[in-house]
C-alpha cells in the first residue's frame, strides 16, 4: 500500500463577501496523519501543492503511483474558518482521481455536509471530524469497518460509527520531514514557520464559531513533554525560526501556556512565536513570561465593540474585559492583532459604528475586519434558517439593510488612514513592521 496526502493549491482570490486568505502555512493535521500512517508501516508522502504552487493540471504527476489519496478541503488552521468557494479543491480532487484508484476527502466540508461533498467530488469516502486516526485506519482497512467515515452506496449516504475524540497524548510528532519546510512563512512573524498546537478545542459557546472538527465544546490538552519535543524538533532539526501555536484559545489552560514558555526558555534559541487567545484568559505575569520567551504577537477574536452584540452571540466577554486583556498584552511589549466582524443577526448601524470606534480605541498593531459567514453546523446558521440559502458550500447570506462589504472597506480605511495610527507605528515600531502593515493594508483593499 502506498498513500499520498494532498493539500491543494488555494489561490488568493476574492469572494463576494471579502478577501480570502490562504497563507502558505504547514498543513499540520496532514503532517500528523502522515506520521501515524508511517508508524503503521505504510509508505506515505505529502504533496503540499499550496506551498509548492502546483496547479491541478500538474498534480496528477506528483501523486501517480499511489493506491490511496487523501485530499483536504481545510487544513487545521482553517478548521474554524473554512473556504466557502471550493473550485480549487474540487479541481485538485478531479486531477488526483485520474491516477489514484481511491480518493478520500478530508476536512470541514465533508464533516458538516458529507452527502453533498461526496456527490460533488465522486470520492471513495469522506472523513468526518478529526482526521488523523481515521486516515490511518482507512490506509490499513476498509471504509466499512473504519469509524468516522461516510460514503455513498447506490446513491444513499452510509455513515459508520462515530469516532471518539482523539487522545492528544497518543498523537506522534508531525512528520515535518515530509513537508517543504523552507517554504512556510507568516508575513507578520517571519520565515521558516511551523504551526504547532498545545491544546485542541474550546469550551466557550460563541454562536458563530464552527467547531465540528473539534467535537463541539470539547477541550483537550497535549502533554507538555510532547509539545516540547515537537518544538525542539522543529527548531533544532528543521531550522524553524517562527512558531505559531494554532490552538483556538492558547492561554485558556494556563499550565499548558507556561509549559510552552518553559520549553522555549530551555531551548535557548532566538525563535519568535505567536498565539491566539481570549482577552479574559490573560494576566500580567503570564504575558510577561510569554514575552520573555519570544512571544511577539497575540491574536484576539474581538468580534464586536457593542456589549449588546457580544451578549447576543454568546461571546462570554465584555468590551471591558477585552479592553483590559489587549492593553495588558500591549503593555507587555507584544504586537497585537484584533479581528472584528460585521453582520451579526440583529446588529444595527450603531453597533457597527461602535465596533469601528472600539477598534480605534484598542489600537492593535493589526486590525482585521470581516463579514460574518454563518457556516453550516453552527448555532448561528440554525438561527438564521432560510436566510442561509443552499445546503452546501458556497451558500448565501444577505444581511438586511446594509452593504457589509462597503462597511468592511470603510472600517479598514477609517482605521489605517488615521494620523494617530501612522504616528504610533513610526514611534513604536520598526521600519520592517511598518512595511508589513502597509503591504497588508494594500492587500485588503485590492
Q: Which percent bin holds the helix content?
A: 25-40%
CATH architecture of the largest domain: Alpha-Beta Barrel
* Strand fraction: 15-25%
Number of domains: 2
What is the assigned CATH homologous superfamily of the largest domain?
Answer: Aldolase class I
What does this structure look like?
With 446 residues, the chain is an alpha/beta fold. The chain folds into 2 domains: 2-159, Rossmann fold (3-Layer(aba) Sandwich), CATH 3.40.50; 184-445, Aldolase class I (TIM Barrel, Alpha-Beta Barrel), CATH 3.20.20.70. The protein is 38% helix and 20% strand. It has 17 helices and 21 strands. A 7-stranded mixed beta sheet has the order 4-1-5-6-7-8-9, sandwiched between helices. Strands 12-15-16-17-18-19 form a 6-stranded parallel beta sheet. Strand 2 and strand 3 form a beta hairpin. The longest helix is centred in the last third of the chain and has 15 residues, at 431-445. Residues 13-17 have low confidence and may be disordered.
Amino acid at each position: 500500500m502506498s498513500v499520498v496526502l494532498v493539500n491543494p493549491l488555494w489561490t488568493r482570490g476574492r469572494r463576494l463577501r471579502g478577501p480570502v486568505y490562504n497563507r502558505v502555512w504547514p498543513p499540520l493535521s496532514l503532517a500528523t496523519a502522515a506520521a501515524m500512517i508511517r508508524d503503521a508501516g505504510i509508505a506515505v508522502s505529502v504533496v503540499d501543492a499550496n506551498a509548492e504552487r502546483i496547479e491541478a493540471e500538474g498534480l496528477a504527476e506528483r501523486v501517480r503511483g499511489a493506491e490511496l489519496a487523501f485530499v483536504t478541503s481545510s487544513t487545521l488552521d482553517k478548521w474554524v474558518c473554512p473556504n466557502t468557494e471550493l473550485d480549487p479543491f474540487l479541481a485538485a480532487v478531479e486531477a488526483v482521481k485520474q491516477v489514484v484508484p481511491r480518493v478520500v476527502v478530508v476536512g470541514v466540508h465533508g464533516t458538516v455536509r458529507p452527502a453533498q461533498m461526496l456527490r460533488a467530488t465522486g470520492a471513495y469516502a469522506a472523513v468526518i471530524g478529526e482526521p488523523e486516526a481515521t486516515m490511518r485506519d482507512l490506509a490499513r482497512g476498509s471504509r466499512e469497518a473504519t469509524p468516522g467515515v461516510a460514503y455513498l452506496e447506490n446513491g444513499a449516504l452510509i455513515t459508520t460509527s462515530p469516532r471518539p475524540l482523539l487522545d492528544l497524548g497518543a498523537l506522534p510528532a508531525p512528520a515535518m520531514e515530509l513537508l517543504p519546510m523552507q517554504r512556510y512563512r507568516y508575513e507578520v512573524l517571519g520565515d521558516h514557520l511551523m504551526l504547532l498546537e498545545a491544546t485542541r478545542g474550546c469550551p466557550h459557546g460563541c454562536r458563530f464559531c464552527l467547531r465540528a472538527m473539534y467535537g463541539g465544546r470539547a477541550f483537550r490538552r497535549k502533554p507538555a513533554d510532547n509539545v516540547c519535543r515537537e518544538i525542539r524538533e522543529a527548531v533544532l532539526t528543521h531550522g524553524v525560526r517562527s512558531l505559531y501555536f494554532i490552538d483556538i484559545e492558547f492561554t485558556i489552560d494556563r499550565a499548558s501556556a507556561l509549559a510552552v514558555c518553559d520549553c522555549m526558555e530551555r531551548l535557548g534559541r532566538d525563535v519568535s512565536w505567536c498565539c491566539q487567545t481570549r482577552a479574559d484568559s490573560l494576566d500580567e505575569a503570564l504575558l510577561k513570561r510569554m514575552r520573555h520567551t519570544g512571544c511577539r504577537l497575540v491574536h484576539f477574536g474581538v468580534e464586536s465593540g457593542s456589549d449588546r452584540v457580544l451578549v447576543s452571540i454568546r461571546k462570554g466577554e465584555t468590551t471591558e474585559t477585552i479592553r483590559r486583556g489587549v492593553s495588558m498584552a500591549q503593555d507587555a511589549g507584544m504586537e497585537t492583532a484584533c479581528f472584528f466582524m460585521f453582520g451579526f443577526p440583529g446588529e444595527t448601524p450603531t453597533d457597527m459604528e461602535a465596533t469601528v470606534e472600539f477598534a480605534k480605541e484598542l489600537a492593535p498593531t493589526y486590525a482585521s475586519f470581516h463579514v460574518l459567514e454563518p457556516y453550516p453546523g453552527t448555532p448561528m446558521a440554525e438561527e438564521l434558517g432560510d436566510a442561509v440559502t443552499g445546503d452546501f458550500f458556497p451558500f448565501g447570506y444577505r444581511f438586511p439593510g446594509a452593504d457589509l462589504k462597503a462597511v468592511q472597506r470603510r472600517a479598514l480605511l477609517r482605521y489605517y488612514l488615521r494620523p494617530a495610527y501612522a504616528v504610533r507605528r513610526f514611534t513604536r515600531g520598526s521600519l520592517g513592521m511598518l512595511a508589513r502593515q502597509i503591504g497588508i493594508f494594500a492587500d485588503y483593499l485590492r
